Amino acid sequence: MTYWNKIKKWITKGDDIHLKDYSEAKLNWGGESAKFYLHLDDFKVGELTFKNDKWSFQYSEEFKTTSNNLNLIIGFPDVNKVYLSQELWPFFKIRIPGLKQPMVREILIKENIEDNNQVKLLKRFGKRSISNPYELDVVS
Predict the structure, then answer these.
(1) Where are the domains of the chain?
(2) 126: which of 40, 69, 95, 96 fits an S-S bond (Cβ 3.0–4.6 Å)?
(3) Is the pLDDT of residue 15 over 90?
């Protein structure tokens, strides 16, 4: 259970906040990490990771050797660069659907996904996008 969910539970139940619960919740705060592979059919294009509250993207070695025959992804013009950002890039962010859609809200509630947790949202909804042919696979 995340920190904010515990706070909500304590407030609604009127329970006292126990130091043990707070410590456990605090350990989960900001410690999330994830790795995704970006594919075009069976071809690995690159790797997106989230670690230490930062996103990174880099092209795969396979892509680097054949990049002359393929289009580069918008926003990532240098095949040799490791891109770093505090924010998820628009190329990946568009894979997360509108969070006010009733069906999406239902999934978020059912699966206990916070609507501000882009890592979990991307894991849940990010595999395919109607805006491009790439697939994003969760590795960890």
Answers:
(1) 31-138
(2) 95
(3) no
